[in-house]
Amino acid sequence: MSSNVPSEPGTIMSGEMAEQPSVLRRILDEGGPAIREVAERIAAKNPRFVLLTARGTSDNAALYAKYLLEIQLGKPCGLTSMSTTTAYGAQQDLTDCLVITISQSGGSPDLVASTEAAREAGAITLAVTNNADSPLAQVSEFHIDVLAGPEKALPATKTYTAELLALYLFVDGLRAGQGAEAAKALPEVADAILARKGEVKALASRYRFAERMVLTSRGYGYPTAKEAALKLMETSYIPALSYSGADLLHGPLAMVDNISPVIAVVADGKGGEALQPVLERLRDRGADLVVIGGQEEVDRASAGFALPTDGLPEELQPIVQILPLQMLAYEVTMARGQDPDAPRSLAKVTETR
């Protein structure tokens, strides 16, 4: 059979989602020592603050890294606005600053240009990519390969979870921690979640005709809510709005009524505790509330997906929280008669400038 025969809709995305447990194992077994070495070399330079640069899915990975760096290391940390450099030509003093640029392809011109500018401004530069030969990796002082293997579906799935784990191991290495031991549980948990396709398919039936969705979380779960919203928008074309639970209460809650579909990512930890007042308000408004989280939280909602995260540290939970939401985006898209492998008007490498 010719390799040029088109695959069935969704085949590529489904296959890449299924690879995620093996990708996580590969990072732990093969990538861990190299990530640790990079972390030790950067820690020796003692950066005074950190800037994170990314677009799209990688921007959500960057937000996860921001939580890790601020909570685990106490380092001031921010997300960059690349246009200040690439469009406005601003010159910054980045002496003793660590600039981490995250990109699956490492090929977008604005990421490369802003990283070059950061290095010229005195920054310590680190690229986190799925392509060791990319232009971004070449212009950066340090590089971490997320080892996800080729990703052909336009919606990023395995590269996102690979970025999260690589960033977790990197931050753990900066503080000379022992977090890699806790991370060893991730592949098995991921396997268990991905085996529950039937549950997700049943959940997807709620959203086949949805005109709008709201996703919310707090703390480490917030990047998960943002990434899930992105996946739903780029595959099923449903407008999906993501909010920190705290921001949701500052106005957007007014648009939620008894027919509004809301997905809450409820972490087992301080982020989930901080989200409780938001969940109460959503229940009071009669929202169609679905919870991705622990069994007790799922039981109190309209429906949900119980995550087997008992004993998994809160900072590691985002790596598996996103899995049922990736599957949900896939199933909703298939139910609506669309192809999640090839969303309209999108390219795998987005060349912003």
UniProtKB/TrEMBL annotation:
GO BP, sorted A to Z: carbohydrate derivative metabolic process
Gene3D superfamilies with a match to the protein in the record: Glucose-6-phosphate isomerase like protein, domain 1
CDD domains xref list: SIS_GlmS_GlmD_1, SIS_GlmS_GlmD_2
RNA-binding found in the keyword field: no
Ribonucleoprotein keyword on record: no
A GO molecular function held by the record: carbohydrate derivative binding
Keywords from the UniProt entry: Repeat
Transmembrane portions of the chain: none
InterPro entries registered for this protein in UniProt: GlmS/AgaS_SIS (IPR035466), GlmS/FrlB_SIS (IPR035490), SIS_dom (IPR001347), SIS_dom_sf (IPR046348)
Domain SIS span(s) in chain numbering: 38-180, 203-343
Annotated Pfam families: SIS (PF01380)
PANTHER family in the cross-refs: AMINOTRANSFERASE-RELATED, GLUCOSAMINE--FRUCTOSE-6-PHOSPHATE AMINOTRANSFERASE, ISOMERIZING
Name of this chain's protein: SIS domain-containing protein
